[in-house]
Amino acid sequence: MTKKAETWKRNTTKQIADCRVFKVREDFCERESDKLEHSFFVLENPDWVNVIAVTKDRKVVLIEQFRHGIEQKILEIPGGMIDENEEPEIGARRELLEETGYSAEKFIFLGKSHPNPAIQNNWIYHFLAPNAEKTHDTTFDEHESVIPKLVALEEIPSLIENETITHSLVIAAFYLFELRK
Questions:
Q1: pTM for the complete prediction?
Q2: Distance from C-alpha of 96 to C-alpha of 101, rounded to nearest angstrom
Q3: I want to staple 147 with a disulfide (CB 3.0 to 4.6 A). Which of 64, 67, 68, 105 is the partner?
Q4: What is the pLDDT along the chain (181 residues), one digit of tens a residue?
Q5: Beta partners for 44?
Q6: How many CA atoms lie less than 13 Å away from 117 in the CB half-sphere?
Q7: Is 113 within 8 Å of 141 (Cβ atoms)?
Q8: 99 and 74 Cβ atoms separated by less than 8 Å
Q9: β-pairing verdict for 59-67 and 48-55
């Protein structure tokens, strides 16, 4: 007989912290097979978006920014949180424009993925914005310091391979982009 992964039933939950961009909750759960009790911590996040914006001359609009978790500047694609009651594509358009000043007429949904289902409850929606062009100045949140950079599309695989691009959600977006080719 094939063994199946265990499931856990949440009996109660308690909010531990409200950290502005996410909340932390503690779930008190019971394993269904043997009633073992244990607590698990979950980060409650809004859903996110990210955007692979490609210009008419096949340059990808990347951003460089400092990430506090690793205390380093890294290269990413534009993205961020979806506002409450905002459709994912609208959030993707907004984030691209705010962080880079680029926009595009057409946005193509590439897919969605769970950022870290072990401890997070949200989705990230990945979009492609072909024929992107600079249309506005950037408008950052007060905690953001973002530098837009243009990189040739054909350089992206080597930037991932040599670990210049290391953000897993960016790599996931480029994987979904490759599947669409």
A1: 0.94
A2: 7
A3: 64
A4: 688 899 999 999 999 999 989 999 999 999 999 999 999 999 999 999 999 999 999 999 999 999 999 999 999 999 999 999 999 999 999 999 999 999 999 999 999 999 999 999 999 999 999 999 999 988 777 777 899 999 999 999 999 999 999 999 999 999 999 999 7
A5: 23
A6: 4
A7: no
A8: no
A9: antiparallel
